[in-house]
User: Which sequence fits this backbone?
């Protein structure tokens, strides 16, 4: 195939990155892997860089550069270290598509660099738009970049919108499984452990996003991301709990018609759709069998049991750098919960405190976002102590 798509996968050793590499492996005629990055996992990064004949590999932890360089010795893969290397390399002329699958706010600087270079961004790092949606979307317009969503919900919305024929929509129905604690009583959720929270009923994901799914903060993040991607007011994005995870999201037109995108829960489908757009190659995924599907159920989210979702709507309403503060506090709180340092409901309590105390910046630029993130990270760590 002529004109292969030259891709960079940021966060290649994580869940999304590994599934993206599986998509690439099944469509080798379409892709040329130029850059792979990881935060800590040198062994997997080196293994994949060699297997996919990548041009370069970056380990974000500079202390592990020697280990990476040694693992790549005798190959054609160039070894680099540090986030500055990622920022520089994603802007290179040898890259067409940047899959941003880094965890948390760490994706902000590389995504900003890729947007400024006019790349196509396959966006899996939702925190970038959560923390700096106005800033990033202004850059997208200025530098004529393109964002293709990778989250299953946003991919579903995008796919539904392809049939809109220019008609506006009145509402987005953003579906979610409800996580592992959907049917639990609040007093039982209060005593939940990280091990219990990590048992997602439908999806296989990294630890951080799985905890976010258990608190419904992930759904709040997705609501904010959808508002930026599809130019919708948060009040017009309705979260619907759908435990079967068959419908990945829906759009509703002014006349009441609703379009839904459906598929078995497999993240490779939205990953492949973004990387191969507008083509739809075969995917060895489990296909829906409607005669065996049984019933599909829907319910409203319980904001008393899952206050993080309400906090996300509040952050979106207040605007400015409030969502950036929310995201920073959440990152620290989730890490502390995973480490057994705090309880489940300490997570929303810490987030609310951060949102209420951060100095407000109405129109934040990159420096404001970086400062807010660092300040709230430090303050939240102190509160946990």
Assistant:
């Amino acid at each position: 195939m002529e004109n292969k798509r030259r891709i960079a996968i940021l966060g290649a050793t994580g869940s999304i990155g590994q599934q993206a590499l599986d998509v690439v492996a099944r469509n080798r005629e379409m892709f040329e892997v130029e850059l792979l990055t990881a935060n800590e996992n040198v062994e997997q990064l080196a293994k994949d860089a060699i297997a996919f004949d990548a041009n370069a590999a970056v380990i974000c932890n500079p202390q592990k550069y020697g280990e990476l360089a040694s693992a790549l010795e005798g190959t054609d893969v160039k070894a680099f270290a540090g986030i500055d290397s990622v920022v520089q390399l994603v802007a290179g002329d040898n890259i067409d598509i940047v899959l941003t699958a880094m965890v948390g706010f760490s994706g902000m600087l590389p995504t900003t660099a890729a947007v400024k270079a006019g790349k196509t961004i396959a966006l899996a790092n939702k925190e970038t738009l959560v923390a700096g949606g106005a800033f990033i979307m202004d850059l997208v317009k200025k530098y004529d970049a393109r964002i293709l969503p990778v989250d299953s919900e946003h991919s579903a919305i995008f796919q539904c919108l392809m049939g809109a024929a220019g008609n506006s929509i009145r509402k987005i129905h953003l579906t979610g499984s409800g996580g592992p604690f959907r049917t639990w009583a609040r007093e039982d959720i209060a005593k939940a452990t990280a091990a219990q929270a990590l048992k997602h009923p439908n999806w296989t994901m990294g630890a951080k996003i799985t905890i976010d799914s258990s608190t419904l903060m992930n759904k709040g993040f997705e609501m904010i991301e959808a508002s930026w991607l599809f130019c919708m007011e948060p009040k017009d994005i309705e979260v619907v709990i759908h435990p079967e995870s068959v419908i990945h999201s829906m759009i509703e037109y002014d006349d009441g018609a609703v379009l839904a995108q459906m598929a078995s829960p497999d993240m490779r489908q939205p990953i492949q759709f973004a990387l191969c757009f507008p083509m739809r190659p075969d995917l060895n995924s489990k296909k829906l069998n409607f005669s065996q599907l049984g019933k599909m159920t829907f319910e409203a989210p319980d904001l008393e049991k899952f206050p993080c979702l309400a906090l996300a709507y509040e952050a979106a309403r207040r605007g400015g750098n409030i969502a950036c503060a929310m995201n920073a506090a959440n990152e620290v709180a989730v890490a502390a919960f995973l480490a057994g340092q705090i309880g489940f409901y300490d997570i929303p309590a810490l987030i609310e405190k951060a949102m209420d105390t951060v100095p407000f910046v109405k129109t934040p630029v990159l420096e404001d976002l970086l400062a807010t993130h660092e300040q709230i990270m430090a303050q939240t760590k102190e509160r946990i102590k």
Observations:
- Residues 205 and 293 are 24 Å apart (CA to CA).
- The chain has 17 helices and eleven strands.
- The radius of gyration is 20 Å.
- The longest strand covers residues 31-38.
